[in-house]
């Protein structure tokens, strides 16, 4: 079973070598009680430690069940101690911070026994030694005899083959010693017990065999194994097969000891709980760095959240803007600067002119380009990534939103506003330029228009505004009124919307500059929500401003009666809600006082596109519908046509006169017929019966008088009014005359008027003169737009990071198309705020770097504390090694301790940081008006705790390696 062959053990002390054992050879039986006696220093304990695998022999061999241990590795010795050896020490060697039950269970934990079986076997072992009712006591709550019984139970729980007892009664009184010896003797019936003792009386009384040592040699053996006994001849063993070797390897692997990390955590947790104050102080020291970083991150997160909000709000007001006609301001400035540097290459003996104006015009012409927005819009619509990067993509069109209000005094134009022009503040050209600047997101200042299109992102509007009355618009003919954060509307808006009388401001600027005494209404007016929600407006498409007259379309905006009817027939717009900017919103997406939906513009585009004047202009792209003249195509055509005005062909002129004569004759006949002139010949295409019937209807009895009245009436009559059915502009005589006509005469009159209109239009078109306008200008004047071809595109990025990705998308588009289709865009916000986030991040990183130093220092301190813990737990290391724990298990125990300390430090730091953010936010709120709320992101808190654990784990690697390398024999001697 167990055999020692010529075991020698030497210790090197300084320059000398001490021999503790000098060739000891002993054979043991499977079950006997062996006592080893001898004076101190004779090698008894050394021999016991070598048998138990705690110490290594210098030479010789230790055979276990006939197997040599010369080639044993550390893991083999660990397994041997755990499964075959049970130790009972003089000083009990119980782990003080574990309960009695946990001390006994520990060896089974290393063996990989399940929790339920472990508990069952540990309880059974304790009951065997008479401690079944002491399971949950700590060792310091028990007597010496009870603790030794616990040690014996721990030695027996794994059912070892050998029980090694080193002075088991050395610290006990006589009565207790007898009890322990009786217990050991009963155990020896089934197991080999080897006891080292200085008490020969106990040895003689309870041992079945006594071996005496002196100076490292066996000097006496009372019952040696009889070498003369002939052992049965064993058959020679077969050479192990591959299957045998595989099974043996599997068995060794099964017997391999290992401590789970949870067990290591439990051991370390219990140890730390015995030193709560020190653990708490250590964790607090370790948390200082975490607190510093967490507070920096919380403030940085609050600032970043505010910046993100500012970005979102700002980018909703200042989008990436792409207009149909654009110029790169940066390129213009660079080119002009370069040209100026090049032009300064002359002597300085005279004064030279600088061609600044010419350079500016030339550069502007060179750098101005037309963007193909129709093609680019299709590219954006097909891009699936754009939706996640933007709050909205807004397409604007050249179609003018004409808004009017009606009152008893007439109609007033609300949008585009003419208030500043009426005041004499600026000219109509300046008004148009300012209106354009206002449409560019307010970058150049406040526009003149108080109506603006809302961003198509209800979630963003909800964040930026509070609905204080009514609701958000849901239909194209619904709008909202926007007040400021104080529930106020500036008087410019009130005058523009007609809530205050704008006529009181007419010419006020000119009169003030002329030195006149003027007064402006400075009273604060108050409006209820209901009053504002009752506001109604009318939208009139631009083509409705024109009326066809004599073959051309005439602008009727100067005709008050016409405009009243046009506005009355316009689309009614209702105010359905009142919005107020949110207190925390840094910017607002609605630039005007009235916000309308995008579908109002699409509705208006459809109305314009389907109007009669637009259809006529599209059908006749070479004729100006406003003048009836042809558009000038090019210079050559102009020269040719000009010569045709002065040089005429006689034949053509003759034919033209003949045609005109024929046309005039036919027209005169029809005119006379309508007037009731009986002397007129029957017009061509009409029978005599038809002619007579018409004469009778017209009052042929007094045809001369009726003819005179008819011709006089027709001479000054608005013929286009008759065509349109509008009789309001006719005199009473004309109305009486019209009423006297039959249906056939009315139809004939309208036919005559149409023919006359066509003749006039044809004469204008072929007059040899040209329109000063062109087709595109006319269509723009009429507000014609194509939905697929916007006038500008406003892209609202979610944040700056998204804006950069959108720019990448635009760059990808530019790379994929030809030079003529490349897109130029204006990034207003990028010019102002692109570096803010980078600056904040840089400051945060610098602060974190400084605070990280304290984190590293605290980690080093935790490493030192862990090393102190290693020194304090040295005996525990020896105990664990004696029951089969490997070096890796010991290292794992102290790594677990650093993990616990690191976790507590990190968690404590986060908790303290969360508490500190409360006064920090109060201080920020008191000192500034900026809505910054310091808060630690959950992800950052988890990461910081993980960093704390990792740093303390790294700091504890060295102490844990020191613990793993400790000699278990020396460790067991440590007090």
Structure description:
The chain has 975 residues and is of the alpha/beta class. The chain contains 39 helices and 28 strands. The strands form seven sheets. Strands 15, 16, 17, 18, 19, 20, 23 and 24 form an eight-stranded mixed beta sheet that branches. Helix 3 crosses helix 4 (115-128), helix 3 (100-110) runs parallel beside helix 5 (144-156) and helix 36 runs antiparallel to helix 37. The longest helix has 41 residues, at 887-927.
Topology:
Layout: E1 2-13, E2 16-28, E3 33-37, H1 44-51, E4 59-64, E5 67-68, H2 74-84, E6 85-89, H3 100-110, H4 115-128, H5 144-156, E7 162-166, H6 174-187, E8 192-196, H7 200-206, E9 209-214, E10 217-221, H8 242-255, H9 261-273, H10 276-315, E11 320-323, E12 325-327, H11 329-343, H12 356-367, E13 368-370, H13 373-381, H14 386-389, E14 390-396, E15 403-407, E16 410-415, H15 419-423, H16 428-439, E17 451-453, H17 458-464, E18 465-470, E19 478-482, H18 491-497, H19 508-513, H20 529-533, E20 536-539, E21 546-549, E22 552-555, H21 560-568, E23 571-581, E24 594-596, H22 598-609, H23 612-619, E25 630-631, H24 635-646, H25 650-675, H26 688-697, H27 703-715, H28 719-724, H29 732-740, H30 743-765, E26 770-771, H31 775-781, E27 792-797, H32 800-816, E28 826-827, H33 828-833, H34 836-872, H35 874-882, H36 887-927, H37 938-955, H38 957-964, H39 968-973
